[in-house]
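Subgroup meeting minutes
Present: P.N., E.W., G.H.
Scribe: E.W.

1. P.N. recapped why we're keeping a running log of single-chain structure predictions: easier to compare across weeks, and new members can see raw inputs and outputs side by side.
2. G.H. added today's entry (112 aa).
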Amino acid sequence: MPVTFFDPGQMTARLDLETAEPQSDGQGGAVPVWSVLSSMWARIEPVSFVVSEKGAATETAVVTHRIWVRFRDSILGGQRFRKGERLFVIRAVRDPDETRRYLVCHCEEEGA
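Output recorded in log:
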């Protein structure tokens, strides 16, 4: 497999990696409480923007991104990145050339 060339100088976004822990809601259920695991430099690449009709005169938009970070085992699908008020939910994680140098996280932006 060819080695992916990536300039780490393109990692100009500072992101917080967050994970959810269920907390009791006092009524027998649970609500997710997000906590920061670590902060890291990343490159955010917008990929697509899809608008779909959800019902009677309502539309939803899904914005997807590729987020490049340095390799670490602690990044998993279901976690999220935060950049200020922007939230990027991690849907899938892959090592693009299997050298354990970088990860590409396929994300959807919440509230876009």
